[in-house]
Amino acid sequence: MSASQVLQEIKSLANTGRAFDLQRFFQTAPGQYGEGDIFLGLVVPEVRMIAKKYKDLSLKEIEILTSSKFHEARLCGLIILTLQYKTLKERNEKKKIFDAYMKSLQAGHVNNWDLVDVTAPIIGEYLIDSDDPYILLYKLAGSRSLWQRRVSMVFTFAFIRSGDIEPTFVMAEKLLGDKHDLIHKAVGWALREAGKLNGIALRKFLTAHSHEMPRTMLRYSIEKFSERERKKWLLESKMVK
């Protein structure tokens, strides 16, 4: 198995018309968050199908994929990392996958919201047994990189899945002042999911912070509330501002 074989299969499914639409959807024009990214026009199920076929690819070959100029190749490589991670039991083996992921993130190859959201909730599981996960989470949250900041939030989905909502609220508070809409959405999304486990904790967070939360963040976080309660939080936050 090799990265070149994977790329050949990806290219065989290229769709020029869909690629054009995807480049607009993922905002790849100059000055936009996905500037310069190149799409071949595959849909995610097609990429997942290829990733599953090559799930035993070596880390060296995966790195070739995750550093590709083609978005779908990077996505495929990252999905393969998640597939391999899910099969592992030993922490030292999981660390190899986690380190490979972080290398790609720090190199700027995990560089759009879909790449983050498909992978970070799975790879973030490695942090659950860390002595102090906040050391890395805070570092990522303070990065100039939009994608590293988004990863700092989306990593906490792994904690939510394990029943631990504290990291989500800690990182949400850390990112309250972020200026980018994609961070507002990620924080609101994570808060909403944490609220499914503990609605009282979410309402306590909103009581303390709804007045300073960007509108998009607030709307996402209260999405599962009743219409009456959603209107209440939106009105109260507006009145305080």
From TrEMBL:
Coiled coil: none
InterPro entries: ARM-type_fold, DNA_alkylation
Top-rank taxon, per record: Bacteria
Listed Pfam families: DNA_alkylation
Protein name: DNA alkylation repair protein
